[in-house]
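Listing S7. Sequence submitted for prediction.
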Amino acid sequence: MRIQPLGDSAIILDFADESSDAIELLKRALSAADALEHANIPGVIEVTSAYQSVALFLDLNRIASMVSGRSIADFLHEKIVSLVRSKGHRSKIRTRSVEVPVCYDIELAPDLARVADQTSLEQSEVIALHSSVIYTTACIGFMPGFPFLTGLPAKLHVPRLATPRTHVPAGSVAIAGAQAGIYPLDSPGGWNLIGRTPVRLFDTDANPPSLLRPGDRVRFRIMTRDEFDKFLP
């Protein structure tokens, strides 16, 4: 495990040197993040996990008030690093199963035909493959509520668009490389759009505002265009 500064008030715990297996590294990061979140360490404002690392955002003024005679670095090592090493491997990842309805109607899936051509599959086969597996939410990033999902079938691994779109509608279900994702808000984007969900991925009035969180298991359920239209307000 490597520890690196992230700006002037955060650190990153990087587990890349502990395994060459991407799935194992993700489990390691999720377990460590879970252990740190539930330790309620004074001065730790937020814990955020990624594919192989965990970022800790810190209130340095609060920490400084508690480290009489010691450096902040020593305090962090004692309270954070030792916790990860002793409990991080054993911490149970708290996961939920979340079903996300998706309409694959061609009007809502502008890249579906091209993905089918690139993969030498029928459009119906792309849809069947995409909705046949259970994905794991590796992390939330890029924008509020955007889930990076692992588990995309290898036959659907296609590159990002050569030229990103300037506008991607909220709810667009997308794939790129070995990842799947869902755009929670209207935004630019360069992933392949193969469907759309009417479910809100990010809601500032909800608590928490993000529908998905790291570790969640996600399954896409096929919905018809009529169901999609009726779902909308």
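Caption to Listing S7: primary sequence and predicted structure tokens for the chain studied. The chain has a mean pLDDT of 91. The chain is about 25% helix and 30% strand.
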